[in-house]
# Entry
Amino acid sequence: MQRRLAWNSALAASLVLSACQAHRTASTADFNASLSSLAASDEAPAVPSSEAVDELLASDAGSLNQMIAESTQALDELFESNLAHLLEQSPEPAAAPEPSEPKSHQPAPASDSAGLSALLEEAALEQPEPQATPQLSELARDVVDALIAGLDASDRPLEDALALLGLDSLIPGAANAPLECDALSSSEMTHYQSARTLLDAIRTAADDPDAVADAAEQIAGELAADAPLRIDRVELCSRVDGFGQFTRFRGNTFLAGRRQRVIVYVELSRFGHTQLAGSANDPMYAVELTQRIEVYHEPDQVLAMATPTLSDRRISRNRFRDYYVVTAIDLPETLSVGKYGIRVTMTDLSDDSIAEAVIPLTIVADSSALTENP
# Structure
């Protein structure tokens, strides 16, 4: 319907424009003829008056209005004629087709449906059935078996043994494998047993909150017993009141030609305990150490003085935790100006392990070079 109205409007506009064009052409021809006759005449043209001009314009406007009215009437008669009947019979514009799915470029299936069914059944038979996902325990078992099989030839047996220890919760008994072979050295076996003890305590921590702390303390003591003696701190002091309670010299600088009394303070750890014989029912523990102090000239390592080997033996019903040794010595007045070192050597008689430490010492010729000491 909208299309028919558009055609009707276009046709009416075309007829009006044609009439206007015809009137313009006729007016232009009359105007050109008048100009030609005026040019051929020798007489001067008469200038029309303003009243004549107004009458001329009014007559032209009236003619144009009459022409438009006649054109409108002609259009109405045209629409009522057979032409309007033909326009009403013009077909409506076809609706746009609905979008369709793009056609596949695959070849058309064969008409023989029985053959197609056979092919589909054959393809289904050829497809492998999905495999079940292995359970975590199965994977853990594979890892455990691989670790145990390669434990004797492993270049890092302790790491592999610790891996088995971690898998013991999934595969009970996996932690026993390192105990049944000779892959671990003595020290590695000690470390493995300590880790196992701690892990067992962590697993049972819900039942005994103190189990982890007790196990860690026990393990620390056992590992320290197997470690060599160690000097944790050594100081040159003017006064010592107890473990960690001392007054040290500032700068360790002294004047030449004078005897100087000093105290050598030594803190120790990883010392061994020996249980005294006959104390099974009431255990008694002993710590036995020796000490030697040497003063040497640092540039040439010439020994300036040395103390005899001193013994330090202590007995207690409990194992010692804090251990320190205090030794007073006199620096001789024969020490010349220069740099010295005070070497402290400690020996643990329980395992013959040795620990050493050096205290720097400076001897000056003038008191103005002394570092203030308390």
Observations:
- The longest helix spans residues 2-40.
- Helices lie at 2-40, 50-80, 82-88, 113-126, 136-149, 157-167, 186-203, 211-226.
- The two ends are 118 Å apart (CA to CA).
